[in-house]
Design goal:
Length: 283
């Protein structure tokens, strides 16, 4: 593969028409940041992943890499779906097993099984309270009345490689009705270093539906967001909304016509969050 060649994969779906597409450049050694941003913008996916040599001593040769992510507008600290896509692309060429990625957010290991399902392990997560003014501005930009939120889910900012504002809809109908002020929400997100707004509705104890506006990346909505899934897992555990050890299923992309499935695992005694999904190449 030549430097700068772009593969196209979709993550969190085994169907090329589902999940979240990502660009993957397996050898970005000759590309500077301007070239990477131009490739991401030309491709138009929410993120494109770029691989280069790892820091010294990171892992086994051929299984460890430096991994960076660019949206059409800017670099992002971490992208879960592009990480899953990259790991599966590597596993198809080098065999399943563990890969280790040095990302701007930290070191992220990914295990790919024989069925080419990838499980990433997040960096150490954090959950913080949100100023009321930020919540009010976000709701205004979304055109969501505060009464439409689920009172059981307090708004928070959660981090597991990237920062996400989490807001919970009280009904599935509220979640489905998403038509927001792109520039207004983008301005708020830039002011508070937010990667997406994670909108969530709880169907059952361990099943959730989510949507992720991503205007700061130049994308109206992300079809399947692994970084936000990890952040949501940390949020749900922190607020005692799920058990310390839990397996959660997240449905995303349905309202966009690109259904995806994300599995989130929480382990007791380990604060990190694991996110699992399939990936497949787009012809």
């Amino acid at each position: 593969m030549n430097n700068g060649d772009v593969l196209r994969y979709t993550a969190f779906s085994s169907d090329p028409s589902g999940g979240n597409p990502a660009g993957v450049v397996l050898d970005a050694s000759t590309l500077d940041d301007a070239a990477r941003l131009a490739i991401a913008a030309g491709l138009g996916y929410s993120e494109t992943a770029f691989l280069t040599a790892p820091p010294e001593g990171l892992g086994e040769p051929g299984r460890a890499f430096t991994l960076r992510f660019f949206s059409p507008l800017a670099e992002v600290s971490f992208c879960g779906h592009a990480t899953v896509a990259t790991a599966v692309a590597l596993a198809e060429r080098r065999g399943p097993g563990e890969f280790v990625f040095a990302t701007p957010a930290g070191v992220v290991p990914v295990e790919v099984d024989e069925k080419l399902r990838a499980t990433l392990t997040s960096v150490e997560p954090q959950v913080e309270e949100v100023p009321e003014a930020v919540v009010e501005e976000a709701l205004s930009a979304l055109d969501w009345p505060a009464a439409d939120l689920d009172p059981a889910f307090a708004p928070r900012i959660a981090y597991a490689g990237a920062r996400h504002l989490i807001l919970a809809a009280g009904t599935r109908e509220r979640l489905a009705d998403l038509s927001y002020d792109f520039d207004r929400l983008a301005a708020l997100m830039r002011a508070h270093d937010l990667t997406t707004v994670q909108l969530v509705w709880r169907e059952s104890e361990d099943v959730f539906h989510v949507r992720d506006p991503f205007p700061v990346g130049g994308v109206v909505e992300d079809p399947a967001t692994g970084a936000a899934a990890a952040a949501l897992g940390a949020y749900l555990r922190e607020l005692g909304l799920v058990a310390p050890a839990a397996h959660l299923t997240l449905h995303q992309g349905t309202d966009m016509g690109r259904p995806g499935l994300l599995e989130v695992e929480l382990r007791e005694g380990d604060r990190r969050v694991r996110v699992t999904g399939a990936a497949t190449q787009i012809a």
